[in-house]
Amino acid sequence: MTISGRLLGLDHGLARIGVAVSDPTGFLARELTIITRKSKREDFEKINRLAAEHAVIAFVIGIPGDLDAPEDKFTQADKVRNWVNAFAETTMLPIILWDEHMTTVDAAEIARRKGRKVRDHVDDLAARVMLQSYLDAVRDGLAPPPTAP
Question: Is the pTM of this model over 0.85?
Answer without folding.
Answer: yes
